[in-house]
């Protein structure tokens, strides 16, 4: 029951947010009539387009599958790198002092400015898109996971050290469990970020997936496809965020933590 209550508290705001998004969508189109029905599509228009045109729906879903694959790989690489680097930074302060300024400097460079260099180095295929998605995931996850690792109880750390535990043992036995809520919070935030990175990489690099088709839809006046693609990727982003949140609440309820419901 505890897990069910946690999940309900987590999902209820998401449902309210989706309803508000629909209302804002309608309000926007009503408030700006100059947009016109040719460009501005309502939720009903999008639904009709997706349910009546099989070829259009299949094309969008095919592009969406490519984007989800790109985002999944970028998410996995970015999260794994963030956890490894966070563990190194927390365990070895000298490493953090040497490399954290470099990481923050790279983070301050706009991704659009980095994209041509990344494409040049890693190519226009899956590798380049993965790197872009991983960069979007890596930096926020790194900061959050480091904060979680440092929230570990000092007394528990000292106890493990008193029994001869190394710094890596202290990290594994005390730091990692303490950082679990932060890891899940980083994952929740990073899922939409990975999709954004994948879309950007597809737009600037690979020329495939939804990122590329969204750009091609504008000059060819395919506004139905444009709106439908945006709606689908938004819904998928919210759905993935919700899935990670449900898993988070189940795990944290199992371990009796109240820190996971941010």
From TrEMBL:
One of its GO terms (cellular component) is plasma membrane. It is a multi-pass membrane protein. SUPFAM superfamilies: MetI-like (SSF161098). Signal peptide: none annotated. InterPro entries: MetI-like, MetI-like_sf. Residues 60-244 form the ABC transmembrane type-1 domain. One of its GO terms (biological process) is transmembrane transport. The keyword Isomerase does not apply. The chain crosses the membrane at residues 7-28, 71-92, 104-123, 129-149, 170-189, 226-247. It comes from the Bacteria. Keywords: Cell membrane, Membrane, Transmembrane, Transmembrane helix, Transport. The keyword Transport applies. Belongs to the binding-protein-dependent transport system permease family. This is ABC-type nitrate/sulfonate/bicarbonate transport system permease component. It comes from Nocardia pseudobrasiliensis. The lineage of its organism: Bacteria, Bacillati, Actinomycetota, Actinomycetes, Mycobacteriales.
């Amino acid at each position: 029951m505890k897990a069910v209550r946690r999940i309900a508290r987590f999902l209820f705001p998401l449902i309210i947010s989706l309803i508000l998004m629909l209302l804002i969508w309608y309000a926007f189109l009503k408030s700006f009539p100059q947009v016109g029905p040719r460009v501005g599509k309502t939720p009903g228009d999008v639904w009709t387009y997706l349910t009546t045109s099989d070829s259009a729906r299949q094309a969008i879903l095919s592009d969406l599958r490519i984007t989800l694959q790109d985002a999944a790989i970028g998410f996995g690489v970015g999260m794994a790198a963030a956890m490894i680097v966070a563990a190194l930074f927390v365990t070895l302060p000298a490493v953090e002092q040497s490399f954290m300024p470099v990481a923050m400097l790279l983070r301050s460079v706009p991704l659009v400015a980095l994209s041509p260099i990344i494409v040049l180095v890693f190519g226009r295929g899956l590798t380049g898109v993965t790197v872009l998605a991983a960069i979007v995931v890596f930096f926020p996850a790194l900061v959050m996971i480091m904060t979680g690792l440092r929230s570990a109880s000092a007394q528990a750390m000292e106890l493990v050290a008193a029994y001869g535990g190394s710094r890596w043992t202290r990290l594994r036995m005390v730091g990692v469990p303490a950082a679990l809520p932060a890891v899940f919070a980083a994952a929740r935030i990073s899922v939409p970020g990975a999709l954004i990175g994948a879309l950007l990489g597809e737009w600037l690099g690979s020329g495939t997936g939804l990122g590329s088709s969204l750009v091609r839809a504008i000059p060819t006046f395919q506004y139905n496809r444009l709106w439908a693609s945006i709606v689908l990727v938004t819904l998928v982003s919210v759905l993935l965020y919700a899935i990670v949140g449900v898993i988070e609440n189940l795990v944290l309820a199992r371990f009796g933590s109240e820190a996971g419901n941010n």
